[in-house]
Design a protein that fits this description.
Blueprint lengths: L1 E6 L1 H7 L3 E5 L6 H11 L11 E4 L2 E3 L10 E5 L6
Parallel strand pairs: 1-5
Antiparallel strand pairs: 1-2, 3-4, 3-5
Length: about 80
Amino acid sequence: MRVRVRLFASLRDAAGESAAELVLEPAATADGAWRGLVERYPALAPRRPSLAVAVNRSYAGFDTVLQDGDEVAFIPPVSGG
């Protein structure tokens, strides 16, 4: 199945792009998408503990099962004031 992954802020900077298409096994989870993304962009690996994930614009867990065509967003913590 194919999913679109969106990257924001420091993740976008580290990957050098704001989105990626991934081909995953059927019934893959958001964590599986993260692992696929890290294969492509190894510099992202240490950022996992602080991320939020959204699937189709709704916050979700890394254990959320994905469907073909889903949009997954990995969101780093926001800072500022």
